[in-house]
Amino acid sequence: MRNDVMAALLGAVWMCVAAAAGAVEVSYGLLRVDYPSQAPISRLEAKPADRGFAGAELATRDNQTTGQFMGQTYELTTVATTPEEAEDALAGLLADGASIIAVLANGADLLRLVERAGEDALILNIGAGDTNLRSENCRANLFHITPSTAMRADAIAQFAIWKKWTDWFLVHGSNPDDRELAEAYRRAARKFGARIVEEREFEDTGGARRTDTGHVLVQRQLPVFTQRAKDHDIVIAADASDVFAPYLPFHLWTPRPVLGSAGLQPVTFHPAHEAWGATQFQTRFEELAGRRVRGDDYDAWLAFRVIGEAVTRTGSADPNVLRDYVLSDEFELAAFKGVPVTMRGWNGQLRQPVLLYDGAITASVSPQDGFLHQVSPLDTLGLDAPESACTAFD
Amino acid sequence: MTARLLATVCLACLTAAPALANKVFVSNERGNSVTVLDSETWEVLTEFAAGNRPRGITISPDGSMLYVCASDDDLVRVFDTDTYEEIHTLPSGPDPELFILHPDGNPLYIANEDDNLVTVVDTETHQVLAEVPVGVEPEGMGISPDARFVVNTSETTNMAHFIDTEDFQIKYNVLVDQRPRYAQYSADGTKLFVTSEIGGTVSVMDIAEDGAPTLVHKISFEVPGVLPEWLQPVGAKVTSDGKLLFVALGPSNRVAVVDAETYEVLEYIIVGQRVWQLDFTPDEKYLLTTNGNSNDITVIDVEKLEAIKSIQVGEQPWGVVVAPDA
Question: Comparing C-alpha atoms, which of B186, B110, B187, B106 is closest to residue B152?
Fold first, then answer.
């Protein structure tokens, strides 16, 4: 019955709106690079096989619902690949006619793929937070949908400053990603006037993290590791490798709040977020995927909603037309974060609030009150125009 | 002091035209209840359970039946406005948020937020007459005074959909700014106002005789010292003479007063926190606002354009409707 209604409607609808828009077919893809990795410390963080894909599928359904009134159709292709086969997989997507591709990969692979894709394709970064991609390694056809590591670190720093927790004990891991994350927190501390009173590196010695006796060892090791630190208000955890941070909150020598990779975490989205209509998003997502939403699902949804919105407003499927529209002052999009998200014209980073998630609720949202900016409070997070070495958008 | 107050009150009784007392019904989204107030004394009369997550609220033209969208129960609950007993429920489709009643009292047009549908329900037979597919996250519902068109706004699709009430077909779609929340026709049917929460604007459409809309203007808002992002238009009402448009501006805790002919913003009235929906008393002397975060309603004197009183209601008030004159 509902299909009949739908069919009848589509006919009627097309007559009245399609005149303005004309039929437009949008073909886009999501390329996910899967890396060999250990099981996460918490099994709640286990990676489902459709991670990212489910968000892209939801966005495509949302776009299609709107498209039916505009005479626009959307076709999504999703591919999961390995680092070695990523370039071939990208070539396959391009050959199939997808000229807009969201990439869920690390920064180095993303850059490699952007080069391979060429200037006529539009690439949407939904996985890499690297600062260099928003600065010297930016590309004119690369939009960053996911917040940069710098935006996340700044989000935490603003909250800490707002709380007057200015003395930080920075604990970071020993892998390159952990050190880069630690550097983002050092920069954030300098930017907003916090002091890092002590720094320690927790060495990743490998080995089993989730054995039956794991917590027993951790319970003895971590207090010793964190004792005799200079007086501090909070502990900042920089553990991009997921080696130790989740253990920190209850195993510190001196009891202090933990922020960063554990405790209060800067995220794009989480399954308990309800404000600003997000409940509807959660319901739609859970019905579609049969599981709770993850940050990468949300980033994928947002990437294709940015495209859908640009198609709706421009009536075009041409990546260059869509790119120009998204970069223009006209573009804005509702994304369940209370304010419209827009695009930074100087480095292709999507402006957006960062949610501070304690594992159960949205504890706060940055930017915090009182952090002012001449353009938008959102530009107090991450690289501002004068700090970015990006020239690709000039 | 008490004596003087009494004297003032009595003077008011003598000089002012006798105001009719009307019941005011407020849905409390988190309190799962409806608060009932008296529009003369502004006292709370009672609060009664109204199902899970009550949001949209309206009343039958004769004032006898109160309709409440119980969003988490996936149905509409109908209450007796004298006894507050539930009379029956109406099928609504999943997650009903807002609805609009035909001026004759039948049918009821309901926005189903989770299912991209507008459900049309016969209020007498309780049958679903139609399910109309619309955009993503349907929310706002308005009806033209001649009842020829029902307008639905879809929050993620960002359109106003004009549904013909004869055949339930969508005849026009108009793109508006981000997250359209509410659609309100002027009393003479020549204009339609659509609020966009995240876009921060009110789209104004001229409505032709045959009901065809033309987007003619976008009203935007500006308050010194308030971040533009916090000026989020949600509920809206127009005076029946078509002169003033009131717009609830959500987290900015203000109601904007707009000249509905020139679209100039005349005034911002400070009310409670997260102001959401609005309704007039039938004489349009007062405008009531629901303030979701401060758990109260504000009474605005429409002639003076001043907030004169706030009254505590239940937890997270969402919608408000005032009973018609008896």
Answer: B110
Give pLDDT tens digits for A341-353.
999 999 999 999 9
**A364 lies in some domain:** no
> What CATH number does residue A101 fall under?
3.40.50.2300
| Alpha-carbon distance values, B30 to B45, B312, B323 (Å) | 20, 14, 23
pLDDT confidence band for B225 (50 / 70 / 90)? confident
The verdict on residue A93 lying in a domain is yes
Question: What is the pairing mode between strands B159-164 and B170-175?
Answer: antiparallel
Query: Do residue B229 and residue A338 have CB atoms under 8 angstroms apart?
Result: yes
Residue B70 belongs to domain spanning: 20-224+314-322
Local structure of A111: helix, strand or coil: helix
Lowest mean pLDDT among A35-49, A280-294, B309-323: A35-49
Those residues whose C-beta lies under 8 Å from the C-beta of residue A133, and which sit 6 or more positions away, are A107, A110, A111, A125, A142, A144, A148
Determine the pLDDT at residue A10.
Answer: 44
Complex ipTM value: 0.83
For A68, nearest residue in chain B (alpha carbons):
B135
Question: pLDDT tens digits for A11-47?
Answer: 444 444 434 446 899 999 999 999 998 888 888 889 9
Percent of chain B with pLDDT over 70: 94
- Report CA dihedral (A146, A150, A153, A155) to the nearest 10 degrees: -70
Say if B220 is an interface residue toward chain A (CB within 8 Å).
no
Task: State which residues form the domain around A248.
Answer: 159-265
- Provide the domain count of chain A: 2
The pLDDT assigned to B272 comes to 96
- pLDDT computed for residue A203 by the predictor: 87
Do A136 and A282 have their domain in common?
Answer: yes
The predicted pLDDT at position A42 comes to 87
- Number of domains observed in the structure of chain B: 1
Q: In this predicted structure, what is the pLDDT of residue A205? A: 77
Write the residue in B114, B155, B251 that is nearest to A283 by C-beta.
Answer: B114
CB contact under 8 A, A2 and B133: yes
A227 within a domain of the structure (yes/no): yes
Q: Which residue, among B38, B30, B89, has the nearest Cα to B65 in the 3D structure? A: B89
In a domain? residue A346? yes
Put simply, the answer to whether A339 touches B198 (Cβ < 8 Å) is yes
Give the distance from residue A32's alpha carbon to the nearest chain B alpha carbon, in angstroms: 26
Closest CA to B24 of B53, B6, B2, B45: B45
Q: How far, in Å, are A44, A58, A105, A271, A280 from residue A53 at the CA level?
A: 19, 9, 13, 16, 19
Torsion of CA A52, A53, A56, A57, to 10 degrees: -150
Round to whole Å and give the CA distance between A183 and A195.
Answer: 13
